[in-house]
Amino acid sequence: MAEPKRRFALRPWLRAFHRDIGYLAVGFTLLYALSGLAVNHISDWDPSFQSYETVVQTGGPIAGDDDEVARFALARLSIADKPRSVDRVGDTQVDVVFEKRTLHVDTKTGAITDEGQKPRFLLRVANWLHLNRGKKAWTYVADAYAAGLLFLAVSGLFMIPGKKGLAGRGVVFLAIGIAIPVAYVQLSGGPEAPRKAPARAAPAP
After folding, report:
1. What is the spatial distance between Cα 24 and Cα 65, in angstroms, rounded to a whole number?
2. Cβ neighbours of residue 153 closer than 8 Å, sequence gap 6 or more
3. What are the residue ranges of helices labelled H in 41-168?
């Protein structure tokens, strides 16, 4: 007696692919989520750099013209980079300026104030990747990650049958998830809201 043909079961395959792609997406999701939280509050802080200020005492006055003072300060702090400019700020102060760093040299006391910004650990790289500053190859990597997220979202709809799936409470959560961004756009006015200037009152006669 011939055995009955087995029906193709879609859900086991969906679960398998969903699981494996989910594992692949963990690292990317952590990176984008962490960076997203940081960049989302960019008006409150610099998500990529943190400010610092340190003072180095050299032990006495620093003699010489501005360039000599700058060379002394660079040697004292073991800085090999070339400054963008060397500026005389006052009778006793010379500023050695870099892109994200400035040395304020007090030629009278010999104090060197090192003021600037340094990259935040991990966040600097995460933000750089999230905002696609690297372009080129990372664009394709980011597109692949986005495609993976789309698959995870869509496949997740059909993984669980019955009342706990899309035929039951799943459709309620799906509707809520869609309604939240739609409602926010409607209530906030959407992308055109900032352009709508309030009407000016007519001047009094």
Report:
1. 59
2. none
3. 66-76, 123-130, 137-157
Which residues is 57 bridged to in the sheet? 111
d(CA 37, CA 44): 12
The 10 Å CB-count burial string (b at 16+, else e) for 42-63 is: eeeeebbbeeeeeeeebeeebe
End-to-end CA, the chain = 102
Q: What is the pLDDT of residues 130-160, one digit of tens each?
A: 988 878 889 999 999 999 999 999 999 888 8
Residue 159's closest CA among 17, 6, 20, 21?
17
pTM exceeding the 0.90 threshold for the entire prediction: no
- Out of 3.20.20, 3.30.310, 3.30.720, 3.90.1570, the CATH code matching 50-119 is 3.30.310
Encode pLDDT of 144-202 as tens digits.
999 999 999 999 988 888 888 888 889 999 999 999 999 999 998 888 876 655 555 54
- Write out the residue limits of the CATH 3.30.310 domain(s) in the chain: 50-119
Query: Do 20 and 13 touch, CB atoms closer than 8 A?
Result: no
CA atoms within 13 A on the CB side of 69: 29
Q: How far apart are CA 147 and CA 154, in angstroms?
A: 11
Report which of 66, 67, 63, 73 is spatially closest to residue 111, judged by C-alpha positions: 73
